[in-house]
Amino acid sequence: MKLVVPLCSYILLSGIYAPKALSDSPPLQDVCPMAPQGERKVFMNGFLCKHPSTILASDFKTLLLNHAGDLNNMFQSSVNMVTATEFPGLNTQGLAMARTDIAPSGVVLPHSHPRASEMMFVHGGSVAVGFFDTKGRLFQKTLGEGEVFIFPRGLVHYIINYGFGPSTTFSVLNSQNPGVVGITHAMFATDSDVIEGLMARMLKFGEMGLSDNSTAGLPWTF
After folding, report:
1. DSSP-derived secondary structure for 65-106
2. What's the short name of a Pfam family annotated to this entry (predicted)?
3. Which residues sit in the known binding site for oxalate?
4. What is the pLDDT of residues 48-99, one digit of tens each?
5. Binding residues
């Protein structure tokens, strides 16, 4: 009986102070069922690396974000996400990048990134941005050129162009495969009247100029 307390204390302290190498690495894919015994092969949670002798400076350069996306759609917006799949130099760096272009009165509908936080820089134009925490509180700000905003990992967020000209933002996300969960796309067809109504409410929402952390008049409450 005397050994029980010291033993429990040792187990607890071992769990607290165990090196991080003993914990699981963050997943880079949505699911990974275990293969049957006869089919198991070596698998890396990402991509295999080039041989050191073949690595070039060009592996760390990309032009994938140097032009605006197509805004000819019902949302009048375009999001171009660049991950390690498209940009070899990002592999193992825990980073992804994105460019977002939005026409006047355009929106990026509510969505989340389950594996990454997002730091967004406004390159041009004016935008209204916001996210909801797990208690339903809204954190909204209007941003101009040169300003930066953070969308915390896994939280639903949105962007609205509230200016008179096009807006462009650039983002860095702290995962080479952030993932995107589109809340409305998961529930409704892209040509749904519900989405059109949501867009209209979001634009009014941005025009309301709600103070930070306000939860009044949520635009997607039906």
Report:
1. TSS-----STT-EEEEEE-TTT-GGGTTTT-EEEEEEE-TT-
2. Cupin_1
3. 113, 118
4. 888 888 889 999 999 999 999 999 998 899 999 999 889 989 988 899 999 9
5. 111, 113, 118, 157
